[in-house]
Amino acid sequence: MKLCYNSIMKFIVKLLIICIMLCSPVFAAKFDVLVLPVELLETKENYYGFDEVSEIIANDIINNFNSSNGKIASPDLYAVRAKLNQNADMKKTAADALKKYKTTNSIDYAEFKKLGSMFSCNSVLIVYSSAVTNKNSLKRGIWEVLEVASVFDISYPYRMQTSVVLLDTVNDLVMWSNNYSTKLGANDNVFAAKNYAQADAELEKIRKYSKDIVASAASQNIMLRFFPKTIRPLEKNIQENTGGALRFDRTIPDKPKEKKNAPDGFYGDMIYGF
Known about the structure:
Oligomer: single chain
Shape: elongated
Helix content: 40-55%
Structural class: alpha/beta
């Protein structure tokens, strides 16, 4: 009888241990990332009243982070601005650090460390988009270029370049960075809008490019830095070494004329490299 009682008690204890293990919450690792577009604190001065492209991409990345099942959390830009507006010193710190990166492409780790600490984030992601030409290295705002090209009827090949840099503010280093590039305008090098509807159409193209290409690829790569092998990166056809930049030609090129030795098939848009 005593042996039977001991066996029952052992069974009950084991059962309790199993229940406790099953019911105990599993505390998965989570990382907080502060996303900062370089124009975060700049006054919106473009003629169309559109959000700057860096901000559009930053918002898409933040949405991807906050949809990652709790793995990465990121404060939205409205909350970031609101908190900075309540602290004049930190607002100046943010403005100076972002302006320095925008104009000189250099990172003030001490300033970004302060910003990360303010939002309880050990990682800071900087996002910057600008329009460039192959004529010079001058970087200009995308909507500024659209306005100037429209007014003066300029037809010139413009590209939009986006840099995304992930900082580890604890160790003062770049954890990951990448550059993305896409052609602006149509195949005839026209990037212009004679009316608001045409400008809005260009905005929608850039929104799609942000959501489907830049924000998607950047979010996945950053996720892989924190959680290796948790997701499968986007598959891309690698055609050439682009030095770490992902290039995406949004428009479909004209179908080539048939030739005797023409290659079979016509492939349209190509995504390659990073």
